Structure formats: C-alpha cells, structure tokens
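Aim 2 progress update. The chain analyzed this quarter is reproduced below.
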Amino acid sequence: MTPPPARSLLARLAGQEDLNFLITNRIPRKALTRLVGWWSRIENPVVRDLSIGVWRLFADLDLSDARTTRFRSMHECFTRGIRDGARPIDPRPDCLTSPCDGILGAHGRVDGDTLLQAKGQSYTLPELLGGGTALERSLRDGQYLTLRLTSGMYHRFHAPHDCRVERVTYISGEAFNVNPPALKRIAKLFCRNERAVLECRLAGRSQSIVLVPVAAVLVASIRLHFLDVRLHLDYRGPSLIDCDAPFVKGGEMGWFEHGSTIIVLAPPGFRLCGDLRDGAHIRMGQAILEAG
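Predicted structure tokens:
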C-alpha cells in the first residue's frame, strides 16, 4: 500500500541523519518525556485518536497481532499485549530466546570488558552495569546483543529462559534518543541513559545472564511486573532491589512505555545462534544464543 504523502515527507526528513539527531536530541528531553508520559495516559477519545493518528505518521504501527485494538489511551496502545501464540517460543533448553521484538544492532563477543555501541564508539561493562562487581567479571569475554525497539513495535519484554530475577539495579540518567544517528554521535550513550540491570539466574545452571532495558527520549519509564514501583525519571526509591522472581521461558517480565533498547549479556560458554546480522528484525521468542 502506498504511504500517504505526509508520511512519505516525514520519512524522508527522518532519513536525514543530522536533522534527525538535532530534532530528537537538542530538545528539553526530560521535560518533553514527562509531558508525553502525562499526555499519553489521558483517557479521552479525541485525545487518544489524535495522538495515535499523529503517531502513525511517524511509525509503522501494526496492530494485527494485538490482543485488542480498542484502547482507552495512547499509553494502552503503546503497552498493548499480543494474542496467545503470536510469538512462538523456541523450546530448546540449550537456547536463550530474544526477550523482545527488535532490530539487531551491535552484537558479538565482549572483548574483555568492552562492547561496541556503533562503529567507532564503545563502552565497558563497568560503565553500563554500575562498576566493579563480580557479575561484571563473570561476563568478561562473553556474548552480547543489542536489540532496538522502534516506536511502532510490540513493547513488552519476556524471559529468555527459565530463570529467577535475583536483583534489579536502577541507574538514573539521561533520556537521549537511542536510534542509529544518536549512537554514532553520542559517546557511551547506553551508559548515560536511564536503565535497569536485571540479574537473571538460569534454571539448572550456575550461570546468570543480564538484561539491560535502556530508556530513551519520550520513553523513560520501565515497568517490571515483579516490582510494585514504576522505574522512571522521578523515581526516588532504592537503586539496588533484591528480589526472587521466577519466570518460565517466554514469561512476560514487563514493558517500556514506548520503544527503546534491551542489551542481552551472557557469560562465556554461549555463542550466537545462526547467521545474525546487523539490522535483522528479531522476534520475541526467537533463539539468539545457545550454550556450547
């Protein structure tokens, strides 16, 4: 289907990297993020329809697998669930599956404690996770994948394996965009943005993997089902939260309020599955790492 002229023009403008970067990062990011968070929750049919209509101009919003297409607010549409069976979960016990739908960015082996953000940009495990812990040392020379969620995607994330979440570390920070133009231009972006570090002990193994949901502009809010608080720019609770939350593979863990990024970290002993390439569209439940 041919896109409407207005959307074609917006797509061309968005494709201009310098303009895209200026528009999405040289703005009062935190103030705008708070405003959008408030606006998106307004349960008014006119506000809802106008907001979703504007959203569609900028994003490929596909509701074909949504559990419902009737929403009280734009926020409900952002955080929508999907129909049972819409994302088959790879059942193999030696595989970790993708926690979310996303576009595959930098990935591969952690070089000591150094990971690639984009060409010419890198960061380290201590910078990402908070610094100097045994967990970081266990991930040296392991594997990592960067999964970027666009605004029109399914925004909930799920357990990559049977596991127990033993600790959440909340790290307050910035709200930069996390799209490719920003990743090329802002050093250590993932280490500067607001994020949560989820330590997940794998069932039947002594190893832990780590999921790092990274918030972004218009997005800076992360909801975890097993915590009774929402992690967001104005959160003032404890930064280290011990917990004991069991999940089966594919079980829903939480959601972003919009699109953003999840970084998956695994210790040595795992390898990437198949022929994964930069820019590939990954589906939640798809195998991404295997033991061996």
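The chain has two domains: 5-78, 95-291. The radius of gyration is 18 Å. These observations will guide the mutagenesis experiments scheduled for the next reporting period.
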